[in-house]
Specification:
The chain is mainly α and 305 residues long. It is 61% helix and 0% strand.
Length: 305
């Protein structure tokens, strides 16, 4: 009788694939998790894991989705299909896995743009970050990301602005346009994103300087922001996060925060923002805190001192 060779005897995949069809959901869950731990080495079990995405047990479905997402670029077509799954946990793992692929996830760009409007906040936030992780390869997502910034979820607004900054130059015009948005939160987030671009955002300097100048009314009024912080779900492994005021200074008006962010952005742009030194020096001498200190720091960065 022929003996099995050592490689076949040591291969755990056949047993794990059989366990995915076990009557006991505990055994199915264990098998899905074990396959996920194997990652790329379990790629031959992918068809069986795809079948488990429709398992009657929610934990098994989620574990199967996680396992598929751990298999790298080869799982890309299946991850795209998972974006349309009825189970939000499957969709969540799909967007987070696509985010890890960076530019390699470009074939999923259209579907990720659709996921920006997902009813599940964690799926939408994961899609936003996945698009940003594509860098310049995600340029075609600029318009939907800009629309996401104008939504009512402050966390998604920030994630979308960050994604646009990662896309870089192709997104600069959209962010500059948002510097003129009616809502000061959107203007502030746009300023932050432009600052993250650094010297590449030098064409935004006149617009940032205009925000920095502000108005006397902006120093005294405290308009209620149109964005209401709510508890939303963020991240692949956590349930909920109640966002803080994100970099905003407590007790400071939304308009003043916007001006602070503009000063920060000018400082990050660096020497190519020297055209705004007049406005920055004025703020550094006469503006109330925290704008005064922020403007002073920006002046030093631009002057290289």
């Amino acid at each position: 009788m022929q003996q099995p060779d050592a490689t076949t005897a040591a291969d755990p995949l056949p047993a794990l694939v059989r366990a995915l069809r076990d009557d006991n959901p505990v055994d199915r869950l264990r098998a899905a998790k074990d396959l996920g731990r194997l990652g790329w080495l379990a790629r031959d079990a992918t068809p069986a894991l795809v079948g488990s995405l429709d398992d009657e047990d929610a934990k098994v479905r989620e574990a199967a989705a996680h396992a598929i997402g751990s298999m790298g670029p080869e799982s890309l077509p299946r991850l795209i299909a998972m974006l349309g799954h009825t189970d939000k946990y499957v969709r969540r793992h799909a967007v987070w896995a696509l985010g890890k692929l960076g530019p390699l996830a470009r074939p999923a760009l259209f579907d990720l743009c659709q996921s920006l409007k997902d009813v599940d906040p964690r799926t939408a936030s994961g899609a936003t970050q996945a698009l940003g992780n594509m860098g310049t390869d995600g340029a075609e997502s600029v318009v939907p990301l800009a629309e996401t910034m104008r939504g009512t979820n402050i966390v998604l607004c920030r994630l979308a602005s960050k994604a646009l900054s990662q896309i870089g130059s192709p997104a600069l015009a959209a962010l500059i346009a948002h510097l003129q948005h009616a809502d000061p939160f959107v203007r502030g987030e746009s300023a932050l994103a432009i600052g993250w671009m650094g010297a590449a955002a030098r064409s935004a300097v006149p617009f940032l300087a205009r925000i920095l100048r502000g108005s006397d009314a902006a120093l005294t009024r405290t308009p209620p922001p149109s964005f209401t912080p709510t508890a939303i779900e963020v991240g692949a492994d956590s349930e909920t996060l109640t966002p803080p005021q994100m970099n905003s200074v407590e007790g400071v008006s939304a308009e003043m925060n916007c001006r602070v962010f503009a000063a920060q952005a000018l400082g990050r742009i660096g020497q190519t923002a020297s055209a705004a030194l007049v406005e920055l020096r004025e703020a550094a001498c006469h503006a109330p805190e925290p704008l005064r200190q922020t403007a002073q720091q920006a002046v030093r960065k631009i002057q290289g001192t």
